Amino acid sequence: MKLSRLSAVLVLLGSFAFAQSNQALVPDNWVPQSIGALRQEASSKTEFSLDHSMLVIASKLDQDNEDLRRVIAGIDGVSVHDFHFAGQWNYDPQILSAVKDEYHTAGWKKVADRHDKYGSPSATDLWVRWENSTVKDFAVLVARAGDVALISVSGSISPLDLVHLSGHFGIPEIDGGVLVPNNKP
Description:
Number of helices: 6
Helix content: 25-40%
Shape: globular
Distance between the termini: 68 Å
Strand content: 25-35%
Radius of gyration: 19 Å
Strand order of the largest sheet: 1-2-6-5-4-3
Low-confidence stretches: 1-25, 177-183
Mean pLDDT: 75
Order of helices and strands: HHEHHEHEEEEHEE
Number of strands: 8
Largest sheet: 6 strands, antiparallel
C-alpha cells in the first residue's frame, strides 16, 4: 500500500515538474508559429512588437497617466498582429485551431472565450500563462468576418493592469470592464 502511494506522489511530482519545465521553455513575448499561415493568407496586415524600453518611451506621451506608467514598469513587451482578409470568413479556420493548439501545448490556459450564439464562427479567446502563481503573459485572439487579431503582452500583470493598458499599444479599449467595440472606419 505504501509503495502505491509513493508511486502516485512521484507521478504527480513528475507531472508538475514537466508542466513547469514546459512553461519555462516559452520565451517572453512568444507568438504561435501558426500565425505565419494567417500572415500569408491576409490581404493586408499590421504587425508590430514593442519591447520594454519602447513602451516606456511611448508611455511618456501620456504624462498624466500614472497608472499606465506603473503597469508598463512590469511589462516586458507587447506584440500586435492584425490581419485583414479580402472577403468575409476568407481565412482557414484550421489555422485558428492550430494557434489554439500551440497555446495549449506550450502550457497556456484558456481563461475566457466568447463565441457567437447564432452560429457565426466569430470568437474572442483569452489565454494566460502562469508563472509562480502570477500572470506572466496573456494573449487575446479575436476572429471576425474580415479580420483576425492577436494581441500578446508579456510581463507581470494583473487583470486590473489590462484595464489600464486598454486603448494603448493596439489593445482594444475597455470601459468599466466592458470591451468597447471599435466602430471607427
